[in-house]
């Protein structure tokens, strides 16, 4: 797994903001899509270094959540591109929303990557929330190629 590639992909998708902002869902956020759980927190600005620390921690959480869904060391069973795609999706959605993709999860477990792509794209995530990102991630999972931005 290439951490630099994952970090770059997430920065491209999420952006990097060193000041607190409200995400599209209205939650206080900072860095690379790092949701501040306590809205009363007085964090208003962070350094690039702190944003990097938060990003790496959030990636670790996404990996842990994938292991909760698919089993310990699940990433070892997938190509680097599929690892990156699933981490990207878990990072954005969080475990609870990711778990709502039951048919997609079953398809991953069956190594049916065509069904994974179809289930990913047959969702509010792909239709409304992040259509361009969902399309890239779904194709990355299906084609087994690196997610690229146009």
Number of strands: 3
Cα Rg: 15 Å
What is the chain-wise order of helices and strands?
HEEEHHHHHH
Please tally the helical runs, counting DSSP H or I stretches of 4 or more residues.
7
Q: Find the CATH topology.
A: Lysozyme
CATH C-level class is Mainly Alpha
Task: Enumerate the spans where pLDDT stays under 50 for 5 or more consecutive residues.
Answer: none
- Structure classification: mainly alpha
Instruction: Indicate the multimeric state.
Output: single chain
Explain briefly what this protein structure is:
With 150 residues, the chain is mainly α.
Overall description:
Strand 2 (28-31) and strand 3 form a beta hairpin. This protein has a single domain, classed as Lysozyme. It has a three-stranded antiparallel sheet with strand order 1-2-3. The protein has helices at residues 3-14, 48-70, 80-99, 102-109, 113-121, 124-129, 131-143, and strands at residues 17-22, 28-31, 34-35. With 150 residues, the chain is mainly α. 61% of the residues lie in helices and 8% in strands. Helix 1 (3-14) crosses helix 3 and helix 5 runs antiparallel to helix 7 (131-143).
């Amino acid at each position: 797994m290439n951490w630099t590639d994952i970090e770059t992909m997430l920065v491209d998708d999420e952006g990097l903001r060193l000041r607190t902002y409200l995400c599209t869902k209205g939650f206080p956020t900072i860095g690379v899509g790092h949701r501040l759980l306590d809205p009363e927190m007085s964090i208003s600005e962070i350094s690039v270094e702190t944003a990097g620390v938060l990003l790496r921690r959030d990636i670790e959480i996404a990996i842990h959540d994938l292991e909760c869904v698919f089993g310990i060391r699940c990433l070892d069973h997938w190509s680097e591109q599929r690892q990156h795609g699933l981490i990207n999706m878990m990072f954005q959605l969080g475990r609870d929303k990711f778990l709502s993709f039951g048919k997609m999860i079953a398809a991953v477990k069956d190594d049916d990557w065509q069904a994974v792509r179809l289930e990913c794209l047959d969702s509010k995530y792909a239709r409304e929330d992040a259509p361009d990102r969902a399309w890239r991630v779904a194709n990355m999972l299906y084609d087994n190629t690196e997610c690229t931005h146009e």
